[in-house]
Amino acid sequence: ATMPSAVLARVSSTSTLVHLSLTFATSRARLRVNASPGFHRPIVRANAGGGLGGGFSAALDKLRREASDAMRGSVGASPSSSGTMVDVRFSDDAPSWEALETRIAKLRKEHGIAEIDENAFSPKKLLRRFDLPANEEPRVLFYRDSASWCPYCQKVWMQLEEKQIPYRVEKINMRCYGDKPASFTSKVRSGTLPAMEIDGVLITDSAAIADALELAFPKHTPLLPYSAGSPEKAKASELLKLERQLFSRWMGWLTSGWADGANRVGFEEVLDLVNDELLQTAGPYFMGETFTIVDITYTPFLERMAASLAYYKGFAMEGGGRWVGLDAWFAAMAERPAYAGIKSDYYTHCHDLPPQLGGCEANGDETQKQFAAAIDGQFDHWRLPLPPLTKHSRPEPSWCGENPVADRLEAAHSVVANAENVVRFAARGCGKKGTRQFGAPLSDPTASPGEEFVNDVDAALRRVVHELLEGSASVAPSEQKVSKHGKHKGAPAADALAYLRDRVGVPRDMKYPAARQLRAHLNWFVDALQA
Prior knowledge:
Elements: H1 19-28, H2 61-72, E1 89-90, H3 97-110, E2 127-128, E3 140-145, H4 151-163, E4 167-172, H5 182-185, E5 195-198, E6 201-203, H6 206-216, H7 231-254, H8 260-279, H9 293-313, H10 324-334, H11 337-342, H12 346-357, H13 366-375, H14 404-416, H15 419-426, H16 454-470, H17 472-475, E7 488-489, H18 490-501, H19 512-530
Parallel strand pairs: 3-4
Antiparallel strand pairs: 1-7, 2-4, 3-5, 5-6
Helix pairs in contact: 1-7, 2-12, 3-14, 3-16, 4-6, 4-9, 7-8, 7-9, 8-10, 9-12, 9-13, 14-16, 14-19, 15-16, 16-18, 16-19, 18-19
């Protein structure tokens, strides 16, 4: 689970690109690898045993537990059933799940939104055939993390999708949110992710997996088709070294509680170089017009840098206009279907990184506090009516904008398609906490739902889905009322909806624009109960 090395396929080099490696070397000479003044805290690095992908050194265990305990007290606060809603009741005036499913199909036709293709990409899919005949089994079995948190799994996942290699998925928990099955640890004793079987041969290092995929599937689009000794290969190698330097500066800043200004300067120094390299290419990608393994290598951590530095340091890295080349890269990546389906959101990353890293340090200034509150849905960021979502949106830009009708339909379908399980999961919010705790504060796999409140939660969630479909609350939320003259208990329903709201994961459950709609509509129902 270390950084993928350059995966090279032999083709003839292009003489017109001979200058590329020299240009890069000149630019990189501006960078001094020595730490910035005040940069004294040891950098938390991804270790060869798995790093962020699920294998943690024993030295981080204590930090991880402490971070978890701290976050449990500050993340995802829910309305309390012991509060003002103890005596609140509401009536069940929402359609049945069957009627809601029928309504989704009708609205798709009315708005010209295509039905979900069973062959289309989805993070929920466990089998991707592409052009593989139905009677053939994929040669690839891909073990990735269940919650779609692991950056090294993301690299392999993107490579499979971009090359359109048929594969089967087996989802495995990361240690910070669950146990690993014996069937997996009997094969991979360390339990690290990602892992892969190609033609039955097990591979457990992400760099080795990347190499193996290129060698085993040469007819599928090569992602670094440069010959040994070519200037393109040299440039790619230098870019990969620069990615590691950026990663180290990010880790040094994100996990440090002191020398904030010096750490910021050190990070910006390398980020400026990354931006310069992008500006020098003929296209939006690191190697120009061609999307390559270099882009895949940068993707998971640039995505996580933008999210985490906004939340913990008040640093607007994405969409601010300072790093124009980087913004163009983000925009181009957002247009790629494979990445659009795999990309996470700021909220998910900001709460999945601390249990993986052993903790992240907020600098506590006013800008940081505002970013963190906004990412957590405060200040009406998760309340209706939602402002338009654009590339200029704060706290998180959306490079492809939004389609509110389609986004609400996606959110509604995600709930309706698995309604019984979603209801019972949400009912954990008014049930009993689990007997075991894991590093991720929002993970409680041994919790049990409040059985006596399941019908209340079911009625509330159906009303939320109804509003998602009809769109009335999204336009005039205060005009859409919840009748308070029924038999259903408001307090446990509110606790359950808040519990669900805080655990909507991107991309595991849905894309960011849809998650934003669902979170806001869940808040609408809770607010309507309190009105």
